[in-house]
Amino acid sequence: MPFGMNKLKNLQILSNFIVGKDTGYNLEDLKSLNFLQELYISKLQNVTNPNQIRGQILSNKNNLKVLLLEWEYEENSLKADVETELLDKLKPPSNLKELTIRGYGGESFQSWLGDLSWLSNLVVLKLEECERCTSLPSLEMLSSLEDLTIKEMTSLKRIDFQTPFKSLEFLHFEDLKEWEHGDGWRGNEIFPKLRVLSIEKCPQLTRKVPDRLSSLERFVIKDCPKLVVSFSNYSIHCKLEIDDCEGMVCNDGSIDFKLLDSRYLANIPAVEDKLKKGSQKVDLLQIVCNEEIMKS
Fold first, then answer.
1. Alpha carbons 138 and 27: distance in angstroms, whole number
2. Which has the closest alpha carbon to 99: 158, 139, 51, 134?
3. Which residues fall within 8 angstroms of residue 131, CB to CB, at 6 or more apart?
4. Distance between CA atoms of residues 209 and 181, nearest Å
5. What is the CA radius of gyration of the chain?
6. Which carries the bigger pLDDT value, residue 199 or residue 207?
7. Which of 47, 58, 251, 267 is 20 to 30 A from 283, alpha carbon to alpha carbon?
8. DSSP strand E in the chain: where?
9. Do 99 and 119 touch, CB atoms closer than 8 A?
10. What Å distances lie between residue 205 and 75, 189, 202, 238, 255, CA to CA?
11. Please, what sign has the CA dihedral across residues 231, 179, 264, 191?
12. Sign, Cα dihedral of 168, 150, 95, 4
């Protein structure tokens, strides 16, 4: 960053603060920018000794509403403890609304992120490309959370939902290669206001997905071949976009396509089987299957 950034005391939006490799890493220049409302910090991997940073960097920024912390993930790096210690020094103010953590190399979210009651006003949370993390923080403490994204966390095997997310409306999972179980999914009991649910590129995920989500407006599943979906458990007004999953017919053994408000259904064994048998009248503009099925 240019020398003298700490003189811009009235700055409100800083869209890319690049961490340098020099002593102090210039992160301390942020301390005097007390009026920041949006802040994006990149190249945090350049910090190799957090002890050189004196005190908290962001704790006095009561106007800060949007924060993005980004490391460039290094596969062979052995600095997981360094990144955990640095994360501790980047504790945001409690009135933060949107938080994105990308490329963090620690195995768990400790410190302030392990006690998310500190972020009780958080509305949007995105955890992306944290490839060494094997567990998530206690997300149920986020009583105001409306939008949650968990993406490219390749070491994560289990996600537990034990208490209700009373405000959550948008839930996105993507590219979780080792995720096997979504324990505690009980529909309206856990997600009473959920409007959009998206699960993509989770090849090991098994069991049924949450059902009886009365507020659900859009449901996307792609590249989750072991996942089971029951069409009968979703509102006729819910738009389904399903490509490559196990699938499941309705309770009476049939699929009433007229009741499905679908953008497309593709590569679902139950659907393809019904089409092969010719027992269903299907609007081909709604149901997309492979070319052989279409010709039959």
1. 28
2. 139
3. 73, 75, 105, 152, 153, 154, 155
4. 10
5. 23
6. 199
7. 251
8. 13-18, 38-42, 66-70, 98-102, 124-128, 147-151, 158-160, 170-174, 181-183, 196-200, 218-222, 239-243, 261-266
9. yes
10. 24, 21, 6, 22, 24
11. positive
12. negative
182 contacts 203 by C-beta, under 8 angstroms: no
Residue pLDDT, tens place only, 175-201: 999 998 766 566 677 888 999 999 999
Residue position matching structure tokens 């240019």: 2
Place of tokens 């620690």: 106
Q: How far is CA 22 from CA 27, 58, 66, 89, in A?
A: 10, 20, 27, 18
Q: Where are the domains of the chain?
A: 5-295
- The residue whose two tokens read 């998310």 is 116
Taking alpha carbons only, the member of 46, 45, 17 closest to residue 31 is 17
Question: Distance (Å, rounded) from C-alpha 197 to C-alpha 219?
Answer: 5
Cβ-in-10-Å burial (0-12, 13-18, 19+) of 5 comes to middle
What is the pTM assigned to this prediction?
A: 0.85
State pLDDT tens for residues 27-61. 888 999 999 999 999 999 988 888 888 888 998 89
Tokens for 177? 């290669």
